[in-house]
Amino acid sequence: MLVKQLTVKNFRNIDEACIEPAEGVNVIFGENAQGKTNLLESIWLFTGCKSFRSKRDRELVGFSRDFVKNELTFLASGREQTACLYVDTKRTAMKNGVTLQSPAQLIGSFNAVIFAPTHLTLVKEGPLNRRRFLDTALCQIRPQYAKALARYNHTLAQRNALLKDVGLHPELLDTLEIWDERLSDFGASVAAGRLWYTEQIGQTADSIYAGLSGNREKLKIDYVNNIGAYTQDVAEIKALLKEELQKSRRDDIFNKMTTTGPHRDDLHIQIDGLSARTFGSQGQQRCAALAMKLSEAEILKEQTGEEPVILLDDVMSELDESRQDYILNHIGGRQVFVTCCDPTAVLRLCEGRTFHMEKGRVL
Ligand SMILES: Nc1ncnc2c1ncn2[C@@H]1O[C@H](COP(=O)(O)OP(=O)(O)OP(=O)(O)O)[C@@H](O)[C@H]1O
Ligand SMILES: [Mg+2]
What domains does the chain contain, in order, with CATH numbers? Predict the structure, then answer.
């Protein structure tokens, strides 16, 4: 995967920009608030995923502008392709000149992995961030996972609605059986996918973390669920989940919500046997999150046969020199975009093209 050219129009504080990046490292540097992360975000949106910093599409459009029109020329599957993203109140995407039904259909065409300061929540905050990490990563490589997840969430919402009504309408209790069957069906596919992904990521993240810490510390990542499923066999997980749903039925009716299932699962991230969330230092947490993100890139490569583009927002600032060196050596051979205020740290190790951002312009 290679970005050949990026054109940006009216995107956040960037009125107009056009860059032709190098095949290796590209350093986007400049003072604070000049538009470095904005430029990185404009590349990320071509993955078809949502922004990592805004929920509303409208926020992407430059103040006092009516629309965004970003274009990307990239190399994928051995040929040059184009994508166009148009945003006003919503996003519209085109691929190779054809308008797509939804920008999400870009997923799989242009692959990238982003690490931004907000990804520290992966280690530091609640389980929702970790479930989201697994779901986003899996959706990029397994379309059938995205389907199972959407069905699971839909069924969960319906079961929860029923649990709210059942107090007033006890006759609805019989229908709970149908929802339990469906929920355990889709839930088993979701849990099996996540268990598989955790196994993959566990191995690579451990070796990346070892490299980052100069072999001094060990990272361990486990998928934890409250049904005790540690097999990737969908039928076995389904049976366990169904049993657990039946056991917790009384609690669920009392709480008016489903208290068991993949929507309650988590990843346990440990450094030298201690919870990284509770005991990790800032640097350790940053490295653990980074190791997970770089592993995501390796899994993408394994599954798609193509190296994703790596986008690193402000990654170097709090890391010591040896950790910075490891990152830059480790990502060699891929196209990388790094933002920073001072480019000397990055350029110390590798040759790269530099882009100086100032007031929303690439100088
Ligand atoms: N929709 C928008 N229209 C215009 N400007 C915007 C919009 N959204 C964000 N901005 C502005 O873009 C500016 C640059 O943001 P960006 O996050 O890219 O800075 P940065 O160069 O990465 O800075 P830092 O080094 O602090 O991370 C901010 O000052 C912000 O106010
Ligand atoms: Mg920034």
Answer: 2-111+308-362 (3.40.50.300), 124-277 (1.20.1050.90)
